[in-house]
DNA sequence: CGATCCCGCCACATT
DNA sequence: AATGTGGCGGGATCG
């Protein structure tokens, strides 16, 4: 209250304090009057003064009392004067209105006045943004808390976030050192790099940054310390200050969350991150489902963090309107480029270094082979990844088991990510519109898991798709995978948007080593799509690769049409250029995808251009709403060629999609939904070991369209964590012809899923995904155009994939291979447990904190129940720290 | 009614 | 044991 009063006194600041303003303010003025504190102290009634106390008082007190007090306060106010001139709205009101008690009452308590954001501003106002190096500013939590008139607990909330950005560091109990923003850029850079590496692709896709981060952390620690404990927090350790070591214990989830949250922004193309997505990402746990409560808690925490970041002027609240409605989101308004940085990717940058070492081999760095997407961030990440590998290797050697665990985690994470991705995708669609360039892009990417050499993608020569189980693995893997795969991929990827990644070209399929995880993202590159179709050329590659069968046709179309539907034809023509463009756009994947794309607009607008999507997309954003119809129309128009096929696809849609097979419906769905829907098969599902996501949406032609449009969204992902699983190799054939066949949606999906599961069972059996679309037997009909190769028969998945791909947009060629990421997991026990069963074990490991490792119990503490639930974050942390394996 | 998010209990960590 | 930290989520307020 005092504060308020003061403010009131003050004068003036306009009432509202929006965060933005605040931020500005804060930086400027350092502290206000020092005096205040004293006064505070002096204050006659300590109790009352405390916010809480006051509130209570107010509440309890009858109105009369209240009034009196208020009056008093007023008196005080002037005296005290707040440090900050700004006053909260209410204050002003009070000023004006004062008179009425009631008003006062109301106002005072106003929640807004007590908001963490406001408090943070006040806090920040006390210290110079860029303190002289010479001066060391120490912050006493108690003092600040009393000065600001809040409980200490609140100060912790602020300080923890600031600490995550290295604006302050803890020097001792109750003592923090103020560093100011001198290192902010460095910190952000570090976070960005870390984010890219880790999330990198994923992120791009969807952001699953978090995982990566953790890993990173872990890695670092490992390097330095064996894991354990330390927490890494760090992260980043930034140079500066602080101690880095300091961290102690727990990871402070708030700090980590804060960092991760920031990373998401930095990695995001659009710089916009919706709360729900962030929350999902942050929730390790798996799955989506997971607790709803947990999700809520995460969101709450994110609000806390967001308020502080807002006060720092790094983000601002925005709303993304999606189909569903508008979602709360935050946009990064802080620095985007950091001096120097950028560099490359490879990681090697400082940041990278740290990362690499550690954990999972970093797990992650997933390398991507992906295709198109590659370009984006990935490049960097890519590179980075490799490096990481090196480091990883080291690590890997050691700890397999641990790794395994990690892998497991990864799996779970992947799953989560997948879920997140889906959502994101969806969101993206809706969301911004922003889809801008970036979004489009992402075709698929692969992330190989680091582990060791893991995955490789090799191109199989052909297509053989045989699903041969046993055989397959051999084949594909053989190559050397990583290096080869990766490298090639990259280039390839880059080249083609379409991409297919390297793999494709030669190889129709990608083989994954057993136990690997994959994420496939279908990029939707327009190009690809287009390419695919018509051009055979570009697309051709893929298709060719695949040998696919498939050329052309339908699949491509679909994809194309989505993206470019309008332009589709054109696309063909243009392919290269566009592709390039696409690529660019791609690059930036952002978490948030703009979904928008929708459709139609583009079509028209871009006549030839086709996909141009990015741009167009932006324009359209909105559209969700409108979209459907128009889109449909467009599509049709555009489609014509494909349309039939497409339609088929649409029909096929995945089960996920509700829609029955109708084209229209599907389309519609597609539109909005573009989202890539994925089919997620968790291990738990019973599938033996696979988890994967397929984009359902895509499948349908309609969808595909949409997908195409939305580049980003479209990407289908397939995750196969199998860490547990041990061995499933996957092969993807880029081309998918299959879709063509008019399989019922449900059927498809079902089939697909089934297939997978089957494969899973086989554990050993490799799965192939052929670029070329494989037609599923079921599908067989593929009447369509392509002759496709039947190769796939074996793999069911392929069909699915194919669809997705197709849907996705053919870019997919990419889909097939490129996009896919592999993560290797080594699993010690290859036992094929059910996924679920498996997980648990792993999880434990993961979760366990270093210290606790031994005891699972620890986790339990609070709630046995939760155990799982227990903050995933923590787990992550633990994991990272532990790394260890 | 959903979005925000304050408040403070309480567990865990540190002293 | 006292005190510092900070996870967490009930439930109030906002819009």
UniProtKB/TrEMBL annotation:
One of its GO terms (molecular function) is RNA polymerase II cis-regulatory region sequence-specific DNA binding. Residues 111-180, 249-334 form the E2F/DP family winged-helix DNA-binding domain. It is found in: Nucleus. It holds the Pfam family WHD_E2F_TDP. Keywords: Activator, Cell cycle, DNA-binding, Nucleus, Repressor, Transcription, Transcription regulation. Residues 65-77, 645-667 have a biased composition (Basic and acidic residues). One of its GO terms (biological process) is positive regulation of nucleobase-containing compound metabolic process. The keyword Transcription regulation applies. GO terms for cellular component: RNA polymerase II transcription regulator complex. Residues 81-90, 864-885 have a biased composition (Polar residues). The keyword Repressor applies. Residues 1-50, 63-90, 334-359, 382-408, 532-614, 630-667, 849-885 are annotated as: Disordered. Belongs to the E2F/DP family. This is Transcription factor E2F7. It comes from Haliaeetus albicilla.
């Amino acid at each position: 209250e005092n504060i308020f009063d003061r403010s009131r006194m003050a004068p003036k600041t306009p009432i509202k304090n929006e965060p933005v303003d605040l931020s500005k303010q804060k930086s400027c003025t350092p502290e206000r009057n020092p005096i205040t504190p004293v006064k505070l102290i002096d204050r006659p009634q300590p109790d009352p003064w405390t916010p809480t106390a006051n509130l209570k008082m107010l509440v309890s007190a009858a109105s009369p009392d209240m009034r009196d007090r208020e009056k008093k306060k007023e008196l005080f106010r002037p005296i005290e004067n707040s440090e900050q001139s700004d006053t909260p709205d209410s204050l002003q009101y009070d000023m004006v209105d004062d008179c009425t008690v009631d008003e006062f009452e109301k106002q005072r308590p106003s929640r807004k006045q007590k908001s963490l954001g406001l408090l943070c501003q006040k806090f920040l106002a006390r210290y110079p943004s860029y303190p002289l190096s010479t001066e060391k500013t120490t912050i006493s939590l108690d003092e600040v808390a009393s000065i600001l008139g809040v409980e200490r607990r609140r100060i912790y909330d602020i300080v923890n976030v600031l600490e995550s950005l290295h604006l302050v560091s803890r020097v001792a109990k109750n003592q923090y050192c103020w560093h100011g923003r001198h290192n902010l850029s460095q910190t952000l850079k570090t976070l960005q790099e870390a984010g890219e590496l880790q999330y990198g692709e994923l992120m791009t896709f969807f952001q699953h940054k978090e995982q990566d981060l953790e890993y990173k952390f872990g890695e670092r620690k490992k390097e330095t310390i064996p894991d354990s404990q330390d927490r890494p927090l760090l992260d980043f350790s930034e140079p500066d200050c602080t101690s880095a070591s300091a961290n102690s214990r727990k990871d402070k989830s708030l700090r980590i969350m804060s960092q991760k949250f920031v990373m998401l922004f930095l990695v995001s193309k659009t710089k916009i991150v919706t709360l729900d997505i962030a929350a999902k990402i942050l929730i390790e746990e798996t799955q989506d489902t997971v607790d709803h409560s947990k999700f809520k808690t995460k969101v709450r925490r994110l609000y806390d963090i967001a308020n502080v970041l807002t006060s720092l002027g790094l983000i601002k609240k925005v709303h993304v309107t999606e189909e569903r409605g508008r979602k709360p989101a935050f946009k990064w308004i802080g620095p985007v480029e950091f001096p120097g940085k950028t560099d490359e990717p490879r990681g090697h940058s400082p940041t990278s270094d740290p990362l690499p070492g550690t954990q999972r081999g970093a797990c992650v760095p997933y390398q991507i082979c992906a295709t198109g997407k590659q370009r984006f961030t990935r490049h960097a990440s890519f590179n980075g990844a490799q490096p990481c590998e090196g480091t990883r290797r080291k690590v890997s050697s050691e700890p397999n088991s641990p790794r395994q665990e990690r892998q497991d985690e990864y799996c779970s994470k992947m799953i989560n990510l997948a879920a997140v991705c889906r959502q994101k995708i969806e969101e993206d669609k809706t969301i911004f519109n922003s889809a801008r360039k970036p979004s489009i892009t992402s075709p698929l990417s692969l992330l190989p898991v680091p582990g060791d050499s893991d995955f490789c993608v090799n191109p199989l020569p052909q297509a053989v798709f045989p699903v041969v189980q046993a055989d397959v693995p051999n084949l594909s893997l053989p190559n050397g995978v990583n290096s080869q795969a990766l490298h090639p991929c990259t280039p390839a990827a880059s080249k083609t948007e379409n991409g297919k990644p390297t793999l494709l070209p030669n190889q129709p399929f990608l083989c994954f080593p057993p136990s690997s995880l994959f994420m496939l993202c279908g990029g939707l590159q327009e190009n690809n799509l287009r390419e695919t179709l018509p051009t055979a050329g570009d697309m051709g590659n893929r298709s060719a690769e695949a040998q696919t069968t498939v050329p052309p046709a339908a699949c491509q179309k679909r994809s194309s049409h989505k993206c470019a539907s309008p332009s589709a034809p054109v696309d063909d023509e243009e392919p290269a250029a566009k592709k390039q463009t696409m690529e660019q756009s791609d690059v930036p994947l952002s978490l948030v995808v703009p979904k928008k794309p929708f459709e139609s607009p583009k079509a028209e607008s871009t006549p030839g251009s086709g996909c141009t999507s990015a741009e167009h997309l932006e324009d359209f954003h909105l559209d969700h709403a409108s979209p459907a119809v128009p889109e449909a129309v467009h599509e049709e128009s555009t489609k014509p060629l494909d349309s039939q096929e497409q339609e088929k696809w649409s029909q096929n849609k995945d089960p996920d999609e509700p829609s029955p097979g109708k084209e229209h419906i599907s389309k519609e769905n597609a539109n909005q939904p573009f989202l890539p829907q994925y089919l997620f098969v968790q291990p738990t599902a019973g599938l033996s070991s696979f988890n994967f996501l397929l984009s359902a949406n895509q499948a349908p032609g309609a969808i595909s369209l949409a997908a195409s449009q939305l580049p980003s969204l479209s990407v289908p992902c397939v995750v196969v964590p199998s860490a547990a699983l041990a061995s499933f190799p996957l092969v993807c054939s880029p081309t998918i012809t299959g879709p063509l066949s008019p399989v019922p949606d449900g059927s498809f999906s079902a089939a697909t899923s089934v297939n997978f599961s089957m494969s899973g069972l086989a554990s050993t059996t490799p799965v192939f995904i052929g670029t070329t679309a494989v037609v599923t037997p079921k599908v067989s009909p593929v009447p369509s155009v392509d002759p496709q190769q039947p190769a796939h028969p074996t793999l069911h998945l392929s069909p699915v994939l194919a669809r997705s791909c197709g849907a996705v947009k053919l870019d997919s060629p990419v889909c097939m291979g490129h996009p896919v990421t592999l993560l290797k997991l080594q699993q010690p026990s290859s036992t094929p447990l059910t996924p679920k069963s498996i997980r648990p074990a792993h999880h434990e490991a993961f979760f366990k904190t270093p210290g606790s490792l031994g005891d699972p119990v620890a986790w339990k503490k609070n709630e046995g129940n939760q155990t799982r639930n227990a903050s995933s974050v923590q787990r992550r942390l633990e994991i990272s720290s532990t790394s260890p394996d």
